[in-house]
């Protein structure tokens, strides 16, 4: 039985890679590479990994890391544009950076800031830094976020991208057991068409999608 793709729901998927821990399938429609649901961590084990993260707005190195998304997105925003940081984590930092630049921010994280009421508002921009690779249903979640954007609004995503099967085999990114979805440029291009958005790639691990 073929497994359906968690991004586009196609069942046209095929084996892509296997290591000692997991299998990885690739969708022939949207090019997403994903881990079969049966090989994901259970919720308690997943939360235990997240609790080990020690990100903080006081860490200059972490701010530099986030600037790869922050800098190109901020240049595209109107003064005072309001945003949402989705998947803000245990030490929200990207939201702090935008607030320091005069952008009011809401945050949401299913573990650390679970107030889902913020997902009912409208925003000029929404960010998700190092988030989409953790999503069990990225197609549904990203469509929900895109629907909360104002016309012309931006969805800023930061995640490392699949480039080739050879690079994937030795890629450190697949060693994190909470990483279950791996996007390529083709995956984001499919997503942009599906959501009627335009997409730009200002950095090797950044995709900016704009609502038309």
UniProtKB/TrEMBL annotation:
InterPro entries (UniProt xref): SAM-dependent_MTases_sf
Signal peptide: none
Pfam families xrefs: Methyltransf_23
GO annotation terms (biological process): methylation
Keywords noted in UniProt: Methyltransferase, Transferase
Gene Ontology molecular-function annotations: methyltransferase activity
Protein name: Methyltransferase
Lineage of the species this protein comes from: Bacteria, Pseudomonadati, Pseudomonadota, Gammaproteobacteria, Oceanospirillales
């Amino acid at each position: 039985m073929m497994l359906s793709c968690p991004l586009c729901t196609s069942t046209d998927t095929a084996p892509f890679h296997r290591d000692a821990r997991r299998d990885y399938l690739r969708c022939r429609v949207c090019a997403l590479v994903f881990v079969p649901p049966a090989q994901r961590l259970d919720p308690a084990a997943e939360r235990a990994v997240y609790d080990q993260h020690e990100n903080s707005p006081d860490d200059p190195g972490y701010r530099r890391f986030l600037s790869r998304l922050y800098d190109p997105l901020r240049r595209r925003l109107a003064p005072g544009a309001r945003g949402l940081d989705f998947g803000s984590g245990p030490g929200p930092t990207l939201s702090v950076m935008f607030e320091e630049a005069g952008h009011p921010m809401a945050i949401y994280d299913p573990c650390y800031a679970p107030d889902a009421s913020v997902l009912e508002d409208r925003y000029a921009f929404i960010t998700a830094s190092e988030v989409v690779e953790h999503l069990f249903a990225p197609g549904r979640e990203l469509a929900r976020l895109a629907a909360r954007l104002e016309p012309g609004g931006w969805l800023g995503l930061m995640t490392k991208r699949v480039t080739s099967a050879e690079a994937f085999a030795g890629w450190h990114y697949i060693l994190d057991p909470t990483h279950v979805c791996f996007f390529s440029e083709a995956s984001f291009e499919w997503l942009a068409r599906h959501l009627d958005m335009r997409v730009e790639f200002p950095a090797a691990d950044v995709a900016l999608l704009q609502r038309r």
